Amino acid sequence: MSVPFPESWSDAAQSRHLRRNYLALAFDGGFYAAGTAFVAFESVLPTLIEELGGPNWLVALAPTLNQYGFFILPMFTAHWYERLTRFKPTVAWISVPQRMPPLVVGLALVVGLLVLRSYVYVPLLGDDTAVIHDAGSLPGSLHICGRTWHKDSLGRQQTGEALTALYQLPPIVVDPRQFAPCPAGACGASPGSACATVIFARVGADAYLGYSLSGGP
Fold this sequence. Notes:
Elements (H helix, E strand, L loop, with lengths): L10 H27 L6 H8 L4 H6 L3 H7 L1 H10 L5 H27 L26 E4 L2 E5 L5 E2 L1 H8 L30 E7 L2 E7 L4
Antiparallel strand pairs: 1-2, 2-5, 3-5, 4-5
Helix pairs in contact: 1-6
C-alpha cells in the first residue's frame, strides 16, 4: 500500500514556491562552490599545507580528505537518518557547519593577502626584494620559477661583498613571500633552462641568507 505524499509536497505547493526555492538553491550552491574553490582539495589545499610547513604525509593525504567525509561519515550516521520522519530541519542545521570551513579559510586567505603582506606577495603592492626580512620567520623552502630552493640548515648569513667574491657575481636576491614572482637571474628565460644553484633573501643591511636549489640546475 502506497503512502500518500504530504500536502506540502504536492505539485501545487511546489509550484507556489518554485521560484523562491530555485533562487535559494542557486545562491546557496553558487556561493558554496565559489567558497570551496579557495580550498580546492586537489590543488590549493595541498599547496597551502606545504607552504605552511605541513608534513609530507598530510600533503599527500589532502586531495582525498573530501572523499572521507562523503563516504566514511555516512557509515556512522545512516541508521540515524533512517529513523527520521522530517529531514528539512536536520539538513538545514547540518548545512551550516558544512559551509563554514570554506568561508573561514577563504576569509583567512583574503585577510592574509590584504593584511599579512610580509608573508604573502600581492602584485599590486610590489615586491619586497630589497626589504630586510626576519631570518627566523623565513620559510624553510621557496617555491618560485617552477623550482624549489631549501634554506641553509645552518642559517649562515653572508655579506654582499663576500658573496660577490665567492660567485663572481652579485647575489641573486629574491622576495621570500608566498606566490612571489620569479626574480631576474634566478632561472633562464626559456622553459627548462638552468637555474641558479643558490639564491638569497636579505636579512640585514648587508646580510643575506642562502637557499640551495633542489634537484640540480
